[in-house]
Amino acid sequence: MSVRKLVEVCFSPEEYVYYKNEFEIVVVIDVLRATSAMCTAFEYGVKSIIPVTSIEEALAYKEKGYLVGAERKGEIVEGFDFGNSPYSYMNEIFRGKEIVLSTTNGTRTIEQAKNAKQVVIGSFLNLDAISKWLLEQQKNVLCLCSGWQGKFNLEDSICGGAIADYLVSSGLFQSNEDSSIAAKYLFLEAEKSYFGFLKASSHRRRLRNLNLNEDIKYCLTPNQTTVIPVLKENKLVLQ
Amino acid sequence: MSVRKLVEVCFSPEEYVYYKNEFEIVVVIDVLRATSAMCTAFEYGVKSIIPVTSIEEALAYKEKGYLVGAERKGEIVEGFDFGNSPYSYMNEIFRGKEIVLSTTNGTRTIEQAKNAKQVVIGSFLNLDAISKWLLEQQKNVLCLCSGWQGKFNLEDSICGGAIADYLVSSGLFQSNEDSSIAAKYLFLEAEKSYFGFLKASSHRRRLRNLNLNEDIKYCLTPNQTTVIPVLKENKLVLQ
Q1: Which residues in chain B are contacts of A149 at CB distance < 8 A?
Q2: Average pLDDT over all residues of chain A
Q3: Pick the CATH number of B5-232 from 3.40.640.10, 3.90.1560.10, 3.80.30.20, 3.90.550.10
Q4: How much is the pTM?
Q5: For residue B139, what pLDDT band results from cuts at 50, 70 and 90?
Q6: Would the CA dihedral through A197, A201, A203, A205 be positive or negative?
Q7: Relative to the CA of A186, which of A63, A138, B60, B99 has its CA 20 to 30 Å away?
Q8: Hey, is the C-beta of A196 within 8 angstroms of any chain B C-beta?
Q9: Cα Rg for chain A, rounded, in angstroms?
Q10: Residue ranges of the domains in chain B?
Q11: Is the CB of B11 inside 8 Å of chain A's CB atoms?
């Protein structure tokens, strides 16, 4: 009898309902760019991040004096000082602060997952760190991709596939779902050059049109930080 | 300016809502086994198939004297004579008949797609025939996978990827969605041996447990028929 733990990849928050019951840890992934921005913010000293789903909530926090980021469809929402570019968080003004963030897909995914026993933030930026941490936990893991407005996206799925591949390779985890098997195949195909592989991806095209190629390159470069942001009482803090 | 038509792959009926607007032809795919069974039934002379979603409807047709198949979770529903094994349709009793079929995923997918301008039935069994026919139509094509109870599945996605790859290779079609790009990668990885590639797939495991390995081998063997079943007034007939 196998005592291996499960690691599965769910391609979008909309499909989470079909997966959610048996997982103790949910890894929220939004490579371009929410979870990459979050990892970067923690790497640069942010104390905590309050993820909010609506612009109204974000505005309310701004009026209370918080530093608040808001992004929709790849652009900074009018009236806010920053969006979800990781570069905007490489700034000393954030050090030690509690900040607020609302993004098109990423914060919505966190909202969906928030009743899981444990929610953590994954991206290529903290790939090795989070994979090793998950291996140590020895709990059933679901990688929950944010997708793009309800649809599958490549970059999140590949990141989920990378985590699943790491855990399964240890011999201590297994994947049963077809989505996880597909994600691992896509990761193995992509890992030689994430940037090249994702050349044709729809979201990359979308961001390239917004002149965000530097953001994309950064977000697709693994292991630039060892932070592991976790959700505690509706705030992201360092694990 | 490109005048190429679109061919995209949607991984499950649940995601169809995010895709459905711009496609003139929807190819419904349920490789294991509904659309494979349908193709086989037409190859063996069935005149038409009425797809129904509920067991109640199926029973009502049975009481009226129709030949009715019903399958749930891989098995024939009690009280019906056949389910969705292609082998059960290799029988002279079906020749020239109008029959009724209700399956776990496939008939539900047809129901979802039925308001599209044109709905056709795809599987590995009629892969070349349907791909060539789609190429001739020169319309925007969505390959709609049935998945498994709301989740992504490998065999339908690979079949959709095969159709997309064929059409894009012609130079007359293009794919923009990440799901279509992923499906094509999975197809190119799988095409050397569908059976080997799908060894680990969840649905194959499920059917193997039901001793349906022969069914699986048959359903994964491309180009055993040239039939193109299309939906007309809620019935499937030969194109």
Answers
A1: 18
A2: 93
A3: 3.90.1560.10
A4: 0.94
A5: very high
A6: positive
A7: A138
A8: no
A9: 17
A10: 5-232
A11: yes
